[in-house]
Design goal:
- The chain is of the alpha+beta class.
- Among the domains are: 1-153, no CATH class; 365-586, no CATH class.
- It has helices at residues 3-8, 167-170, 190-194, 266-279, 331-345, 378-388, 417-430, 438-444, 453-469, 530-544, 572-581, and strands at residues 22-27, 40-48, 55-59, 64-68, 71-78, 105-106, 119-120, 212-213, 222-230, 236-245, 296-303, 318-323, 349-350, 358-359, 365-368, 372-376, 472-477, 486-492, 504-511, 514-522, 584-586.
- The strands form seven sheets. Strands 4-3-2-1-5 form a five-stranded antiparallel β-sheet, with no helix packed on it.
- A hairpin with a 4-residue loop joins strand 3 (55-59) and strand 4.
Length: 588
Amino acid sequence: MTPYEAWFGKKPVVHHLRTFGCIVYVKNTKPNLKKLKDRGQRMVFIGYEKGAKACRVYDPTTGKVVITRDVVFDEGTQWDWSGMENLETGSDAGSGDSFTVEYPVKENRRAIEGKEGQEHTPSIQSQLEPLVDENIEEEEPITPVVAQFAPAADPSPIQFVSPPSNIDENFDADHAHPDYGESPVRFRTLDDIIGQVTPPGQAARDLDRVELLAVNRQALGLKWVFKVKRDEKGAVVRHKARLVVKGYFQQQGIDYDEVFAPVARMEAIRLLVSLATHEGWEVHHMDVKSAFLNGELKEEVFVEQPPGFLDPNNDHKVFKLHKALYGLHQAPRVWNHKLDESLISLGFKRSPSEHAIYFKEEGIEVKQSTESISLCQKDYARKILEKAGMAGYNACQTPMVPRLKLTKESGSPLVDATLYRSIVGSLRYLVHTRPDLAFSVGYVSRFMEEPHEDHMAAVKQILRYVAGTKDKGLFYGRKKGTEPMLTRFSDSDHAGNVDSRKSTSGIIFFLGDGAVLWQSVKQRIVANSSWEAEYIAAATVACQAIWLIRIEVKFVSTADQLGDILTKPLGRLKFQELRDKIGICQMD
């Protein structure tokens, strides 16, 4: 029994008590947080504030004590104090150059009424283990730094002091973004930074035109942001400096208006990657260097002269920005406008439902009349020939040489795999309106991993055939008084693949006289005989037509088998005969 229970006759309420030293997540009240910035900061619970409904939490990374009531407790975890011995100095304990800085903390005025102006200078040593060696020589007094949770009225950058001999050892943060104004002491050497800091106007990407103007309006401040660029192994490859605007002083309606800029949803990105994988497309990733600096400003924005580059003869004047700088509220939006204009000028169209996705229609030309509809891709075929450098080559009658057999273990030299994949990938899109190319394009697609000269020769044969038939396409005619019937053909060769001895299935569906679906695919298993390969092809047709109530199977002779064009290279006469039968004709 506790004294409380003995005196009051009831058990005390202790549900509000929390585990000392547990992890807490403090709400980050810093203004103008970016979208992906953490809304909570990880700290350590050290007690309660007297006279207020608030907690005292300790930030081991800064050595500050924060008084707040916006916390979430995680009593199941504790702070890992291993490796925290040199947290405040960033140097080895016992070093003669080490020093200690104490940070006064402003109290939370919302939680503590009537205590305005009172400051707390916590003694961390009384509550936790010492973080630094006690035998450290004292440095000169250092200007106190206001706790980050208190509203900052002075926009001046925080100054950090460190002995010059420790500069090489103290910086050990991966991809850090310290914005320490004119004191980049956390980098390895000042020479590395000075070499990266260039005055505005030296690079066309930074400012279109620099002018010093005397104005009677508020100018925005500038600051330097320094970053260490590392390679995949963590080694420092470059020290980067960027001049940014203190955009948190901008006033809406004066310095900026609208700020929204579309961002691609991850679902859309994953959809495109999945589609590219399915279609065998090559994905290119491109990055625009200093992208925001390309955006052109519509508003009049004035900024102060950059720190370290003040003109002593014109220190009362400011710069007028013609292009955006990082830190401006409207910088993402004006960059998006610039990108949108550039992509549209290249023939791209923006998706109406996902404004961060653009597509370019290579063009299926549709011609429609009262009696027929035709589909053709002659412009796209012409672009393929130009990209491959074969626009003026002589045409040929068939896309492949009869009885051609290619193998992965070719003895000919290797060719440029990127060019090979690019051409074959373009031809695969052309197959959407050209079933006569389905087998030949599918056949050369099997060697995209490591193409050789004989594989490229087969691709050039296809391109020569396209050059002579680029005006051909699908034709769907209308027959009055007849019901269109869905007709399906399936065929297969036997062990046509030299490497795996798998067969190739060819299927084609007709609605009336027009082909609506066709496939030329390598079978998944090795057929023991030709009739087994035929049955596998028939099963593929059944899978495509499973929605039908009944599938009627009829024998078709070789002379009438339209699927034969999808299974193997044919002679000129036979190929042209079947090409005409499946609806490929000359477009007017």
